[in-house]
Amino acid sequence: MNNLNQSDEFIQQLFQAQQETEAINTPSFAECFENAQLKHQKMKRTKWFVSGLVIIMASLMILSFSDKEAPSPTDTIEVATASLSLYEQLEKDGKIVTNDIHFDFNKASIRESSMGIIQGIADMLEEHPEIRLSIEGHTDDLGSSNYNTKLSTIRAEAVKAMLVKLAVEPQRLSAKGYGESKPLMGNTNETSRAKNRRVEFVRQ
Question: Which domain holds residue 178?
């Protein structure tokens, strides 16, 4: 009887030991929940990454296809309405009007920013040796009329001298100042005055 009790006690101890081992190896509910959340977040990140990759690839394919398309009607219109060359403008209007020749205040000193248009005039004259030009200076109405006429004259002469320096024959050029006498518009504000301060290259 004692042997039977000892056997039962031994079996019970083995059963308890097995239960403790399973309890150690089996994760708790909190651990299971945490692991599930981590897996869900990982799958979510993977999903967004794949979706983003697909969108990027699709965009690149669309851009690649667009580059191979023919110009749109808008592009064609822009090319067709491109600004005229200096020679074409001279042929069309008989003169070239520009506000891009700048001088120091109350002086005839030509600023460096003016050299683009002046070089363009020199190149045109070199390409078309038959052309002769009258260089005509104009001012706004600030200051006396007599002073403005003198100022526009010496400025026109300065432009002529610069063109001669750029190898244009001086006999093909003349210079005259009109001051404020031929405004393009009323001198009512600074914008209109800036338009009236100009140099014109008139074909002779």
Answer: 86-203
